[in-house]
Design goal:
This protein folds into two domains: about 220 residues, Response regulator (Rossmann fold, 3-Layer(aba) Sandwich); about 160 residues, Response regulator (Rossmann fold), CATH 3.40.50. Helices cover about 40% and strands about 20% of the residues. It contains 15 helices and 16 strands. α2 links the parallel β2 and β3. α12 crosses α14.
Length: about 400
């Protein structure tokens, strides 16, 4: 097996490096090429980026000696759809079989279209938009880990039930933020709550949220719904506390992960409710997986998005081994069909399955952030508040509007 890391910071660099990619060995051994297209320098770097690359490489290493070789590439899409689309198109044209991760929903939607056009594979873990398994579903795309519907159902309705019945959204102004606000609004209203307003801020150009937070404060809503992610969520919570919003409003972190809680700190984060699909300390299997990747990830655990890159890549490579590398390379749609036909099982997510629309089903957890006194050591941040089976956590198949779904 050959695993090489290439960090490509722009589409020009991607073209230059890919032009020199080695071809399959002279002996005729097939080469499966996997491109991790992620955020290596922006607001999602800490929750995706290097961790997603490490976990993809881990999956490749665990599938060694299966009759084919695996090469893992990486590039930074800079959270720009045009940059991401240009890299993915060049990758696919020059022999990459699979694109993995792709945080930022606008970029992911573009990649899904290109993968279908080129009959390649797209394994999404980082982007949240549920449109990838709805109107934009594709026979070439698998959506692992999480989506806006799951986050909305897992957090929105639960907060209303605790008394948070009026909401104001702070929303990242792109596809992910719009979809998350839309989906949470649905569950808030179904639970009897009301949305009093929203402020959309330019993404990824905003670091000062003060003007938007003042709008939230003046709304007199009980809940500040944070329809953003990663560094933006951490910074907006810190700034909201500086303005004293925590004295009159609950903060609903609609997409927040372990790395974000670490950056925020338990003093500021204690008591937050958040929804995730993976936590390193859930069970023996998640702890074993974490022990394998920690030494390669700066001696720290990964969050759910990198874990999703591991699970999706591992299952794809199992499908390649099952159908043969030549057949998998010849048709991305056939490779995805084989993935759907096989039950999934890995140490990060346990047993699961992939539906017709490409949605991977696995349990989802509502976590409460521990107090400093409850935490027993580094990265011991969560306690499980509720568990939702995969069949209930994600949007019902008939409601998504995916044209692949047959009644």
């Amino acid at each position: 097996m050959t695993i090489q890391r290439r960090d490509l910071l722009a589409s020009g660099a991607a073209a230059a490096v890919l032009g020199g990619m080695p071809r399959a060995r002279a002996q005729g051994t097939a080469m499966i090429r996997i491109g991790v297209l992620t955020d290596m320098s922006g607001p999602y770097r800490d929750t995706t980026g290097p961790g997603s690359l490490v976990c993809t490489q881990q999956a490749a290493a665990e599938m060694a000696n299966r009759g084919f070789q695996v090469e893992v590439l990486s590039a930074d899409h800079q959270n720009k759809p045009d940059v991401g689309a240009n890299i993915a198109r060049q990758w696919y044209d020059q022999g990459v079989d699979v694109v993995v991760d792709v945080p930022t929903s606008s970029v992911a939607l573009a990649i899904a279209g290109i993968a279908r056009e080129k009959n390649k594979v797209f394994l999404n873990s980082g982007a949240a938009t549920s449109d990838l398994t709805g109107p934009a579903c594709s026979p070439n795309t698998v959506h692992w880990t999480y989506d806006t519907y799951m986050l909305a159902k897992g957090t929105g309705a639960a907060v209303v039930k605790t008394g948070g019945n009026t909401w104001f959204f702070l929303t990242a102004d792109y596809a992910f933020g719009h979809a998350l606000q839309r989906d949470v609004t649905r569950f808030v209203e179904q639970a009897g709550g009301k949305v009093l307003g929203a402020a959309r801020y330019p993404f990824p150009a905003t670091t000062d949220f003060s003007a938007f937070l003042l709008q939230a404060q003046s709304s007199r809503a009980k809940v500040l719904g944070l329809a953003n992610a990663s560094a933006d969520t951490v910074n907006s919570i810190k700034q909201a506390r500086e303005f004293g919003l925590n004295k009159t409003m609950k903060f609903a972190a609609l997409l927040m992960g372990l790395i974000d809680v670490h950056a925020l700190g338990l003093d500021a984060g204690q008591g937050l409710l958040l929804t995730e699909a993976f936590y390193w300390d859930l069970n023996d299997r998640t702890r074993a997986f974490t022990e394998r990747v920690k030494p390669k990830n700066g001696d720290k655990p990964v969050g759910m998005v990198p874990a999703g890159c591991y699970g999706a890549t591992l299952h794809y490579l199992k499908a390649v081994a099952d159908m043969g590398a030549a057949a998998a390379k010849a048709s991305g749609a056939e490779a995805v069909a084989r993935m759907k036909a096989m039950p999934t099982d890995d140490d990060a997510f346990g047993p699961g399955s992939i539906r017709q629309d490409g949605r991977h089903l696995h349990p989802v957890y509502l976590f409460e952030v521990k107090t400093p006194a409850e935490s027993k050591g580094p990265w011991d941040y969560y306690k499980v508040a509720a568990t939702t089976p995969g069949e209930e956590a994600f949007r019902p198949l008939a409601e998504g509007g995916c044209p692949l779904v047959r009644s």
